[in-house]
## 1
Amino acid sequence: MLAIEISDLCKSYGSRTVLHNVDLAVRSGAIFGFLGPNGAGKTTTIRTLLGLLRADGGRALIFGRDAWREGPTARASVGYLPGDVRFYDWFTGRTTLEMYNASRGGGHRDEMLRLQRAFDLELDKKVRRYSRGMKQKLGLIQALMHRPRLLILDEPTTALDPLVRETLVQELRTVAADGRSVLFSSHTLSEVEELCDEVAIVRAGRIIENEKIAVLQQRAVRHVEFIVDPRRVVPPAPSGLRILSQADGRTRGAWAGPVQPLLSWLAGIGVQDVSIAPPDLEDLFLAYYSNNNQVSAA
């Protein structure tokens, strides 16, 4: 059974459509990246999936349960971190987590304390005295502590320092290794590339790409630089090589596709030096937002 199944999901606010026939499927045990710039429609999709907003069309299922008609039952399997996490300022961190523990039937204190140690969060301080990063840690602990079958994290690394981000990465990999699932929403490609098996890219409320990270890396651009004797007659470059600049025998370019044809061509032209960078998914991602595409979703 799929952890998340979204099909033809539509949502409008008056005359403004913010989700256009969104389709999304997340399998059990996957860490799935939901990628797009702020305002692309990620949060609206997540809130509709959780039954916090009612869709105007289509359906959203969590482990086969309808997000709107069976919302409380569906949400019982979910740990959720919203992008704008908020707590009662007059509670301590400990009181906050104990409240969540009680609301979920209890029995999660050991895991709560393990996560508190892992994220190095002081619990006996009023939430109003927490920094933004501390509140984010508190939000992560409440989402993880009951070991949900599905984690839905909306921009979870906001305000986290690098060491805490690495702790989060390790925790999410453990979640996936246990056969549980993660929907990881972000506008930062590098963290999605590092962590996720598959990614959906959203723009203006539409899914414009849904593919495995490994497949996208094969499509990604490699930056190439090589030097040949300027007196040498060089045969035409293969079609995958886009020349960016040439001067005094030094050529800079961009290569898309499998690298073997490029290597064969370079071997035949007698290069004196060559540099081929790893695939750059950032260029591929930016290409999805080029040509003056305007983001209109929330």
Note: Residues 4-212 form a domain with the Rossmann fold fold (CATH 3.40.50.300).
## 2
Amino acid sequence: MSKLTHLDDKGRAAMVDVSPKDATERVASAEAVVTLSEQAFALVLSGNVAKGDVRAIARIAGIMAAKKTSDLIPLCHPLALSHVGIEIEPIPEKHALHIVASAKTHGPTGVEMEAMTAASVAALTIYDMVKAVDRSCVIETVRLLTKSGGKSGSFSRADATGKKPT
């Protein structure tokens, strides 16, 4: 059985020493889904939310969050990100928005947490922007979709579960 990497041999929280690891291209993607009321969903798609273009602002918030991941998650390494992307697509039949965040770097450790932080903060930003008309919206399905690079190799949610991601 594998051991948790963020614990030292005495069981205390510890930052992983990545100095012996090879620098390789690391890429990860994560998703979040925000389910809205019919009214809020229509407002978001129309662009008529008083605070501005919800999807554009959520995209910027997600990118900014990825760059601050090590400030938010105590044992994450600060990374020089070479790319962060956020796609937000409507799911009309669910009155939902599907967020896919991707992150990329060339270094000794992965970018899974940066992608998941980006997706999460983009979702939280959507909530913040629509809460005046829909406090019941739900953020769900925040999860890693893919990762590649490094010693542990690649991961794909579709490969792991046999199901296509949301």
Note: The chain has five helices and five strands.
## 3
Amino acid sequence: MSLANREILLVGGAGGLGSATAEMLAAEGARAIVSSRASGFRADITVAADRRRLLDAHPGLYGLVIFTGVPARGQPEETLRLSWEVNCEGPILLAREAAARMREDSIQGSIVLFATMQAVALFPGSTAYATAKAGLLHAARILAKECRGRVNIRVNVVAPGVMAAGMAEASIEAGKYDHYLAEDVIPRYGRAHDVARAVRFLLEPDSYITGQVLSVDGGITL
């Protein structure tokens, strides 16, 4: 089914993954709205007033995609706190608040959140980032269960692998992931449109999929 004329909010969508998704949705005629801390409709979703202002400004949403995240590198104590706020707490609270409004308006909507390959497999040195994203993943599945029913709000999660876009670009340039190519684990690094296609799939109207995690990682987590 077409997404034409459906309003879809892309939060944290100013980067490479969000831009590719916005382009794909707009080509189908969807009204793709980009929000971030720095551009588009500016909002910090770790702040309750900003989340409320964001949703107030976009009533009647069909879709919400939350790309928001930080790599969470640095000293463990301060990094864990920041990671929890940005990578889990803010996105989950926004998703819950959006879902409540969709149900009030009787909109059969779709919410897509972003985790990471590090939330579904074990990677040394990723404690701060992976812990928060794993929490988001579990909370998203709980929200999906809470939102089942006659007014069905579907909630799913995309877990990207090593993408040549967004936060992983610097690590790719530093050679951190070269061994995955050398050892023939993956055929190439992921591209922004690999993720965009996954998001579009989960936004499909009248879809029967909810509470699932879709890994877009070329097989790394296998």
Note: The chain has a mean pLDDT of 95.
## 4
Amino acid sequence: MMALSQTISGFRSSRWFALVWIAPAVLAGLFLLVLAARGIRASEGGQSFVTAFPGESALPWFAPVGFPAWLAWQHGLNAFFLLFIIRSGWLVRTTKRPDAYWTRNNSGLIKTPGKPVRISLNLWMHISIDTLWLLNGVLFYVLIFSTGQWTRIIPTRWDVFPNAISAALQYASLNWSVENGWVNYNSLQVLSYFLVVFIAAPLALITGIRMSPGLAVRFAPLDRIFPLPVARAIHFPVMIFFAAFTVVHVTLVLATGAIKNLNHMYAGNNGYGWGGFWIFAASIVIMVAAWIAAKPIVLRAIAGTFGHVGR
């Protein structure tokens, strides 16, 4: 009995104890949300609203149809980078005593001004992956604006807002209409992707640069208009937003026609073969393998080629 009592007491004091009431509360909230949405859709006003605004806003006449191969590669790389940005960012925030520290090597051919800054290995990983994510993002911006793909994720009509509400109502009622993302996203997707690409991503970049060791001191003159605590207060919620968006995005991709959606996103075709699924499965295997491999001993070896790693 004493051992059982100690076990229960230890569980109550752990950070996982909150799930005992949070998980049921979330499930109950989702259940009530579905009931409310179905009630609204069944009403005369709800039916009229969904008929007037089916959930999709018309695209400009010159909008392209389908997804090119480069967009599929961009999507896969972005998913990979985002996974490790969130992981390393969480470790930076929660690790009290880092396993190792990294200092840049200023004795090579490329020298940077100022005294080298000592940062944790987790922060080095975070900044390194962020740099790759940034390069991928710059290429993405160039390509979407040069190929017309921007028309699919930037609203061009005011009816995108009531249509987004309609799409949200259809999702919440678990009775969504048949759509074809190969031709046009629903309005809720358009607003979500716009928020991710043009608001959340730049916010993550700007606040990250403001917080970056070695640059924070140089940006000291900005303290009056952009204080460091403000950057920190924004940066972490943006990370939580990306994590939440990823969970919802993957859930809806799988729930609203997994084979079709995976073909769009990974195989670059509008067919119903299994190509997209197998590419997606292979990407998951790669991410899991990279997650397992990203241990301190491996990170030390990689980081050591770019600077000095020590305690």
Note: Residues 12 and 19 are 10 Å apart (CA to CA).
